[in-house]
Write a structure and sequence with these properties.
- There is one protein chain.
- By secondary structure, the chain is an alpha/beta fold.
- It contains 8 helices and 9 strands.
- The strands form 2 sheets. It has a 7-stranded mixed sheet, with helices on both faces. A two-stranded antiparallel ribbon has the order 8-9.
- The protein is globular, with a radius of gyration of 17 Å.
């Protein structure tokens, strides 16, 4: 099973951490062998360049992280990606789709599934199910169609620490770009214009983990 995990960043100088979180989740939790390829583009590139770079992959699963800065581009390139890769599964995740998966699936026929909430373990479980050809109904946070009916599992909101995304593969892709150090998840606020605070509360990672990963970044 090969998965292309796609990030459309706001600027080239910004690195994307979310895809590498999914890669780490696949390595930690997947039972079936899975090859996860990270594809990064930016919103400042022409649509045809973004589409060409993503569709060049021969992946069976295309996973795209959706945020407020790239959701318009995802909507534009999605139908063409479906045409170019008709047999692949297209999975969306991220805050811009996690809180309205039913609406996304009803309006965007080219989307196969929406994965809601934190994705490390659910994405690994999804890849396992697709690789084995088994039912995906047990995957937490997954929303999908069964004929004309929508099936949405409860959002996955763990309390433990996820596997570290700061692998050698991630560090090698930085090339001087801005790196992000994740020490918490969640948001203490509930701003009306932002979806990050819909789920109340903040989960803190351990201080030892934060120190360890800060040193990894500093030495890379």
């Amino acid at each position: 099973m090969k998965a292309a995990i796609c990030a459309i960043d706001s600027q080239y100088i910004h690195s994307a951490l979310a895809p590498w979180c999914l890669v780490a989740g696949g390595a930690a939790y997947a039972k079936w062998p899975a090859e996860c390829e990270v594809i990064e583009t930016t919103i400042n590139q022409p649509l045809e360049v973004i589409l060409e770079k993503i569709s060049r992959s021969e992946a069976q699963v295309f996973a795209i992280s959706c945020y407020i800065w790239n959701i318009g581009i995802v909507e534009q390139i999605g139908p063409a990606l479906r045409t170019l890769r008709p047999q692949a599964r297209i999975v969306l995740g991220g805050p811009e789709v996690s809180f309205r998966p039913g609406q996304i699936l009803q309006q965007w026929g080219w989307v196969d599934m929406v994965l809601c909430g934190e994705g490390e373990r659910p994405f690994a479980m999804l890849l396992d199910a697709l690789a084995a050809g088994t039912d995906v109904a047990h995957v937490p946070g997954l929303c999908y169609r069964v004929q004309e009916r929508l099936v949405c599992q409860p959002m996955y909101l763990p309390q433990d620490e996820p596997p570290s995304p700061y692998t050698q593969g991630y560090l090698q892709t930085l090339n001087g770009r801005i790196a992000y150090l994740e020490t918490t998840r969640g948001c203490p606020f509930s701003c009306s214009f932002c979806l990050s605070g819909v789920e109340q509360g903040v989960r803190f990672f351990s201080l030892e983990r934060a120190k360890r990963e800060m040193l990894l970044l500093a030495r890379s």
